[in-house]
Specification:
The complex is a heterodimer of chains A (390) and B (324). Chain A has 390 residues and is an alpha/beta fold. In chain A, 44% of the residues lie in helices and 8% in strands. Chain A has two domains: 20-347, Thiamin diphosphate (ThDP)-binding fold, Pyr/PP domains (Rossmann fold), CATH 3.40.50; 353-390. In chain A, helix 10 (253-268) links the parallel strand 6 and strand 7. In chain A, helix 2 crosses helix 3 (92-101). Chain A is globular, with a radius of gyration of 23 Å. In chain A, 46% of the residues are buried. Chain B has helices spanning 6-20, 44-48, 60-72, 91-98, 101-104, 134-138, 151-163, 213-225, 243-253, 268-280, 304-307, 311-323, and strands at 3-5, 24-28, 53-55, 76-80, 114-119, 144-146, 168-173, 180-182, 196-199, 204-208, 230-234, 237-239, 256-263, 289-293. Chain B folds into two domains: 3-182, 3-Layer(aba) Sandwich (Rossmann fold); 196-323, Rossmann fold (3-Layer(aba) Sandwich). In chain B, 36% of the residues lie in helices and 20% in strands. Classes of the chains: A alpha/beta (390), B alpha/beta (324). The structure holds thiamine diphosphate and magnesium ion (MG).
Chain lengths: 390, 324
């Protein structure tokens, strides 16, 4: 792998180092099974793990529906129905590919952008919007989906994933009938700089924990490009911890699925952690509160349009016998989904503050109980009098 | 009843919990072969194995963060932080993740993680080894914070912390690790989240916890020689705080002095003063007095005896309260 050394002359006008190998360019060893033009490619190591052609339409459907969900959620935010939205457009292949490679007993620890993974874990999509509507910090039962709640403190969840994997190890030692499983720690290129990612990788390596670190390098951490976070391809960092690191074309759902399936098998077989760097691009704003025109050129965005993860699979499907009716049905399904989403969001009522007093602690807590009584008395003071007199 | 040190009592409490449930496990730096820098986990790795008494890589965020993951998988990890001043690399995981998990999951997820922190000064140590950061954690909803002051409490409170479904921080008074006392191995000391009246009195109430409890008792004994009857309360639990026991005492004595090693500003004494003032204003015959550290970084070892509240500092406050 050719690593471009930083030199004083390599600084851009902002004083930032420019390191094409780190972020801006594909590296020769990036795993790809389908080109941006929709042509299949072989990979000596990973073709065996590629999803079955029977599943291509399903993968396309997932990506299509989650993109439409993203667009609809953005619209709901614009209309004031959501406080904020975090778009995933551009990262559908990275999320659907990795999510579909997981087995039910595996457990995912997402950031705040993994709506596509949520779909693959069976989370009801409107539930994701509860957080963004401001009615809960959760939204689904993580134990039901083996999909942890979104974590907004960057990288904190990577350690939870490692600890969970350590728990899997102990469960299996105690009872070999417990199915082999792995956890998946999602994080971004920006979060890769957080100390928790380092500690997570140290702990995972030290205990040989069955965890897959799945980094979506979408090239941006809000306004900061990924070469501020790293001067080498992120996947290379794994070598320093002593486990495999693989850069995969994050816009190629087949390659992502294959590499993730391999990594999960590796982890489940007790061979230890794997780092996957899914090389992708955040095609939209960081959030609905963000303005990318302030920090990136539209040419940068346009250069990624041709690598759109949906486009290449659509090209392939159309060239290989998928009828127009398939795509028409998806349109209808997306329209139905949008209506359902909108109705669900509008029906989401703000919970009563008094409910929150019941969840701060698992066991009774005298101060919380006392403050609840105060709150209820205080609120009751505003209630209309019983006889209706006023 | 056997007599043992606080360190040994915690060791026995941990052993009892490890025996009682296969889901209990210990993790921390140097807790295995060495038995921890204070030997609190001595012998436990040999008895329960490296999977249950885990020498972790050196990283406090890593210890707490992986403990959260283990708890999500059904385990009850007990994390040792080597010294009070080294909990801060784990502060983020404790306050943003551990404390909030139950609330942010609307009560669906429980993370019964215990964090043991040897705390306080008086051991002549170097920087960062003598601090009392309990107020920094008490401010965070979702955490419970207890601190035993004697072997009987130490033995039971560590087990009760492990059984609790909420995250619990156990602040262990490190300069009292070698304090000996009887331990009743058959019956616990009651609810760990309540205060205990250790000495009854009528003229003033002194509340202390952890390492200052013996100091408060000695101050009360000295005051008795001067004819003052001092009630001494061991707070035991910093969060939740047992306002009822303290308030009842103040309604009787009319005066309250709160003593802790931590700086008084923004501290536990201020919280107790405010609560008792709200509850028993008309019983108070003097302002609530606080005895504690100054608003300074913890001083160097050769000065700490002047910094730490001692019998005289407590008596000085008691005298001011009585003279009011
Ligand atoms: C500990 C922490 N610091 C800062 C932030 C604010 N913040 C939210 S997202 C973000 C950028 C994250 O970039 P990256 O990890 O690449 O993920 P992406 O948003 O691109 O998916 C920042 C700085 C945060 N959420 N947590
Ligand atoms: Mg990013």
């Amino acid at each position: 792998m050719d690593v471009v050394q930083s030199t004083a002359a390599g600084l851009d006008s902002n004083g930032n180092g420019v390191s094409p190998a780190a972020a801006g360019l594909d590296t020769p060893d990036m795993v790809q099974l389908m080109t941006a033009d929709g042509d299949l490619r072989d990979d000596a190591r990973f073709s065996d793990y590629a999803p079955d052609p029977d599943t291509y339409q399903g993968l396309y459907r997932d990506m299509f529906l989650i993109r439409r969900f993203d667009q609809e959620s953005t619209a709901l935010q614009r209309q004031g129905q959501l406080a904020l939205w975090v778009p995933l457009t551009g990262q559908e292949a990275a999320q659907i590919g990795s999510g579909r490679a997981m087995q039910p007993q595996d457990y995912a620890f997402p950031t705040y952008r993994e709506h596509g993974v949520a779909l693959t874990r069976g989370v009801d999509l409107p539930d994701i919007l509860k957080l963004f509507r401001g009615i809960t910090n959760g939204g689904w039962d993580p134990r039901k989906h083996n999909f942890q709640l979104y974590t907004l403190v960057l990288a904190a969840q990577t350690l939870h994933a490692v600890g969970y994997a350590m728990g899997i190890q102990r469960d299996r030692t105690a009872d070999p009938a417990v199915p082999a499983a792995a956890s998946v720690a999602y994080f971004g290129d920006g979060a890769s700089s957080e100390g928790d990612v380092h500690e997570a990788m140290v702990f995972a390596a030290s205990f040989n924990a069955p965890v897959v670190f799945f980094c979506q390098n979408n090239h941006w951490a809000i306004s900061v490009p990924s070469d501020v976070q790293t001067r080498v391809p992120l996947a290379q960092r794994a070598a320093g911890y002593g486990f495999p690191g693989i850069r995969v074309d994050g816009n190629d759902v087949l390659a992502v699925s294959a590499v993730t399936a391999w990594a999960l098998e590796h982890a489940r077989q007790g061979k230890g952690p794997v780092l996957i760097e899914a090389f992708t691009y955040r095609m939209s704003a960081h959030t609905t509160a963000d303005d990318p025109t302030k920090y990136r050129a539209s040419a940068d965005e346009e250069s990624w349009l041709a690598r759109d993860p949906l486009l290449r699979l659509e090209t392939y499907l159309r060239a290989n016998g998928t009828a127009d009716s398939f795509f028409e049905r998806l349109e209808a399904e997306a329209a139905e989904q949008a209506g359902r989403l909108r109705r669900a969001v509008l029906a989401m009522e703000a919970p009563d503050l008094s409910q929150r007093f019941g969840t701060a602690y698992a066991e009774p807590h005298p101060l919380v109980q006392e403050e609840l009584r105060f709150w209820q008395d205080y609120e009751a003071g505003f209630a209309p009098e019983k006889d209706g007199g006023r | 009843m056997p007599v043992m040190t606080i360190a040994k009592a915690i060791n026995e409490g941990l052993r009892a919990s490890l025996e009682a449930s296969p889901t209990t496990l210990l993790m921390g730096e140097d807790i295995g072969a060495l038995g921890g820098v204070y030997r609190v986990t001595e012998g436990l790795k040999a008895e329960f194995g490296a999977d249950r008494v885990v020498d972790t890589p050196l990283g406090e965020s890593g210890i707490i963060g992986t403990a959260i993951g283990l708890a999500l998988r059904g385990y009850r990890p007990v994390c040792e932080i080597q010294f009070d001043g080294f909990v801060f690399p784990g502060f983020n995981q404790i306050t943003t993740q551990l404390a909030k998990m139950h609330a942010r999951s609307d009560g669906m997820l429980r993370v019964p993680v215990v964090i043991r922190i040897p705390y306080g000064g008086g051991i002549g140590s170097v920087e960062h080894h003598s601090e009392s950061p309990e107020a920094l954690f008490a401010h965070t909803a979702g955490l419970r914070i207890i601190t035993p002051s004697n072997p009987q409490d130490a033995y039971w409170m560590i087990q009760q912390a492990i059984e609790c479904d909420d995250p619990v921080i156990v602040f262990e008074p490190k300069r009292r690790y070698w304090l000996k006392g009887e331990v009743d191995l058959t019956s616990p000391s009651g609810d760990p989240f309540t205060a205990h009246v250790l000495r009854e009195g009528t003229d003033a109430t002194v509340v202390a916890y952890g390492p200052l409890v013996p100091v408060a008792l000695a101050a009360a004994a000295a005051a008795a020689e001067d004819g003052h009857s001092i009630e001494v309360i061991d707070l035991r639990s910093v969060s939740p705080m047992d306002f009822d026991t303290v308030t009842a005492s103040v309604q009787k004595t009319g005066r309250l002095v709160v003593a802790h090693e931590a700086p008084t500003f923004g501290g536990i004494g201020g919280e107790l003063a405010a609560r008792v003032t709200e509850r028993a204003f008309l019983s108070l015959q003097a302002p609530v007095m606080r005895v504690g550290g100054f608003h300074l970084p913890y001083p160097v070892a050769r000065m700490e005896e002047h910094y730490l509240p001692d019998i005289d500092r407590i008596l000085e406050s008691v005298d001011r309260a009585l003279a009011y």
